[in-house]
Amino acid sequence: MQKVAIVGGGISGLSAAHFLRDRFDVTIYEKENTPGGLIRCEKVNGNLFHTCGGHVFNSKRQDVLNWFWGIFDRDNEFSKADRNSVVFMDGGEKIPYPIENHMYLFDSDTQKRFINNLVEMVKNKGFIPTNFEEFLSHRFGKTLYELYFRPYNEKVWRRKLSNVPLSWLEGKLPMPTVEEMIFNNMNHVEEKSFVHSTFWYENRNGSQYIADKLAKDLNIHYCSEIKNIKFEQSKKFWIINDNTFDKVIYCGNIKDMVHAIIGLDIPTSYIEAVEALEFHGTTSVFCEIDKNPYSWIYQPSKKYQSHRIICTGNFSTSNNFGLNKDRITATVEFTDAISEVDIIDNLSRMPLNPRYLTHKYNKYTYPIQNKDTRTMVRNLKKVLGKENFYFTGRFADWEYYNMDVAIGAAMDLCKNL
């Protein structure tokens, strides 16, 4: 039986190990002392802190659903919920998400401007956007762009939206036509086609439970940060920590990967392209907030830097241990690093009376592509694949994968090994 090394015990690495374990002798190397990667959680005062977002599960891929529910007990381990998201506007209005379906809730002047935008959009129906700014303003109209899409996304991306490419967008936003927006507003239709409009959440330990259960019975070497992966050219095998492997699947960060490989010359053009890749981090702030009915709260307001609140206390009652009945736990997200002093100052200006508990900064959260990123990554996969070295995962592929998409990408890779 051939031996496979997987570097990284996040959702991509754990999934890949399951897909291969019946055909290969699989070893996972994980730098932390617990599995999970970006879906890792911690307990704070008896409650679950999602240290990088609030990860839930659903998928549009039936093969991913079949595999996942073949491992987990949907009826007993998970709860199903409808996504109930909202946009907190600067003036205090709470507009249900997606905002373009609820323009009838705005004042008459705003509604008229929106209608005029729709007329202009019909006239320019053949327009092909080349960047994120053009996409948003021509898909949703200038009024919505200025009210919500621009201020919210500038908080997330910390750059001009004209410099954000469109490649990351697939499956991340509703894509309504003008006709659909008019119909939805006239009939007060709730959106059900966007990503995770319904979702499943593990009842006790959220996404950490998913990681822990997937890790069970796998051969995982924890506290093993892999900085050198040597290719033995004459014998065509790979060496990690003095162990030899026929194949390697790298599920860490591509920036580390290209410098970890020894004995195989990666063309300088790839190394330079990888080093130039841009990204954002996230400061996740664990808080108590006032009880509310929402799952995600989007915040375009310029009064504070946070761009969204993930109401994890509404995902499972077990996330509100020891709290008063009028309070729940939540994760407040800020793009990039922010000090505790500035966090507390921002929280004082935010709705729902958030009280700071703790925070964690993740350097790598949002991969930022340019127009050449996908082609470069695809070609590098071909170069390394010739020597049985493969990679997958959010920061290996430099794609903004949700958990289910990461599982699907690992599944697709492993089918061909």
Walk me through what this model shows.
- By secondary structure, the chain is an alpha/beta fold.
- The relative contact order is 0.20.
- The mean pLDDT is 94.
- α1 (11-20) packs parallel to α14, α5 runs antiparallel to α6 and α9 packs antiparallel against α10.
- It contains 14 helices and 20 strands.
- It has helices at residues 11-20, 62-71, 74-77, 108-123, 132-140, 142-157, 178-187, 206-215, 254-260, 268-275, 340-347, 373-385, 394-397, 403-415, and strands at residues 3-7, 25-29, 41-44, 47-50, 78-82, 86-88, 94-96, 198-202, 220-221, 229-232, 237-240, 243-245, 247-250, 261-262, 278-290, 296-298, 308-310, 327-335, 355-368, 389-391.
- A hairpin with a 2-residue loop joins β11 and β12.
- The protein starts with a strand and ends with a helix.
- The radius of gyration is 23 Å and the shape is globular.
- Helix content is 33%, strand content 24%.
- Strands 7-6-16-17-18-15-19 form a seven-stranded mixed β-sheet. A five-stranded parallel β-sheet has the order 9-2-1-13-20. Strands 12-11-10-14 form a four-stranded mixed β-sheet.
